[in-house]
Amino acid sequence: GAAKVSLVMVGHQAIMDAYLCLLHLTAGILIESLFNAFATAAFFKFVVFSIFEMRYLLAIWKAHRPQMNGGDNWDSMRRELSVLYTRFYGTLLCGIVLLYEFHRYLKPIVLMIHSFWIPQIVSNVIHDSRKPMHPHYVLGMTLTRMAFPLYAFGCPRNFMRIAADRNWSIALVAFMGSQAGLLLLQHYFGSRCFVPQQILPEKYSYYRRLNEENHVDDCVICMTPIDVRSSSSECMVTPCDHFFHGGCLQRWMDIKMECPTCRRTLPPA
Questions:
Q1: 3-class DSSP state for residue 217?
Q2: Domain boundary among 166, 197, 228
């Protein structure tokens, strides 16, 4: 679900696309013979950044705030949206100023810009998110995001006439590869698989034992009875004492971390 995706990560990538849009436009102005090609690329980058990624950013923001979806909270939602857009465009403009002022340190800045997977890795660990993104998306974005800096800093005959730096290019590949590798580890082995067990907080057990006082009825997700006499993995109990089939609740939590009955926020499974 969108609630598992890091808002900072998506905003980071949207800002990267905005910078690439400006870069393509600037290159088209400087190289008149290639203006049409660069202007076309800049236009598509602008569409991706200003329409698709901003809509995705808004969808993730709303998923992180399910209490805002009601009509009664419109004023509060509008205020928070204003803050969100102010921070986004403020960060975008500040980044342009910093790039201009510290252009001598372009390589470290570019390396820092390509740390966009780190917020998602941290978010996965904090919230114990289960498979927020498909591995194909992670690998595809990693490879495509590396293409331009590797051309600019790794190709001796790039059109920007930047001196090739093999060591920096290797460092970028290693840095991006390590981020993607951590995300894939989290996907296949758990979001906290590389965190020492001793420092992890105690985790809520959805398979706690049932007692005679608990009244078990139908699973509200599939509307079929819950057999408490079957194995414990067949029945999951939320902190608000609502019962569901294990498979039903697992699939539900892949979409939203709310109790299907009372809409209370659920802890990670």
A1: coil
A2: 197
